[in-house]
Amino acid sequence: MLEKNGKGHVIATCRNPTKATALLELKNQFAERLNVLPLDVTVESTIEESARSITERYGSLNLLINASGILSIPSVLQPETTLSKVQKSSMMLAYEVNAVGPILVIKHMWPLLKVGGLLGTDGDIAVVANISARVGSIGDNRLGGWHSYRSSKAALNQLTKTISVEFARKKDPIACILLHPGTVDTDLSRPFQRNVPAEKLFTKEFSVQKLLNIINNAKQRDNGKFFAWDGQEIPW
């Protein structure tokens, strides 16, 4: 985004910016256009503080991407292969990070969402894009398992759809969409890549470009829709 769009600014957030090596490298490349702020989706005060910082420095946003997600943590959270392995603590943690966190971010960033904004794009709407997953689709669920992850992404889908209805009712020029990035070669998917065909395992660069194409072409009529990386709609 920074390389392809020579105008405007990008704000990246993470729990600990001092340890975010890749973001720091980008910051060195785009010192004037990239701002990195601390934000933990499980701590609402950090979301509020980020919103305040953005308001004071920039005044508005025209694109908000929520990419927080959790699938596994050694000795804490593992995708369940059977109902007997479901634990309340795992489900609550997945729900907090995958569903509640992104919605709280939208809640606090909503007043900042304006046409124009940081990236200076030419679109006539602002865009909110929540990164979901095909496994969060109830209609597409044929394999079962992964109870915590599936249900938390399904919750994200429902919450996003509900927000999109409110945006439409208030006639806000915002398209709130859900995106499935495919299976991407990241730390999140790495422990579960063994049975993924090589052609179905995407690089981060490929997936990001596909998702940005959808975002850049989003229209008001797309508000509340759920898209796969290839632009196809996914059933709820």
Structure characterization notes:
The chain is an alpha/beta fold. It contains 5 helices and 8 strands, in the order βαβαβαβαβββαβ. It has a single domain (10-228), classed as Rossmann fold, CATH 3.40.50. It has a 4-stranded parallel β-sheet with strand order 3-4-5-8, with helices on both faces. A two-stranded parallel ribbon has the order 1-2. The longest helix has 23 residues, at 147-169. The two termini are 29 Å apart.
Which terms would index this structure?
236 residues, Rossmann fold, four-stranded parallel β-sheet, two-stranded parallel ribbon, 5 helices
Radius of gyration: 18 Å
Average pLDDT taken over every residue: 92
Percent helix range: 25-40%
Within the largest sheet, what's the order of strands? 3-4-5-8
What order do the SSEs take from the amino end to the carboxyl end, as H and E?
EHEHEHEHEEEHE
Discrete helix count: 5
Class by alpha and beta content: alpha/beta
What's the CATH class label? Alpha Beta
Largest sheet: 4 strands, parallel
Low-pLDDT runs of 5+ residues are none
Task: Report the portion of residues in β strands.
Answer: 5-15%
Number of domains: 1
- Distance from first to last alpha carbon: 29 Å
CATH homologous superfamily heading? NAD(P)-binding Rossmann-like Domain
CATH architecture: 3-Layer(aba) Sandwich
- Overall, the morphology is globular
Query: The CATH topology, please?
Result: Rossmann fold
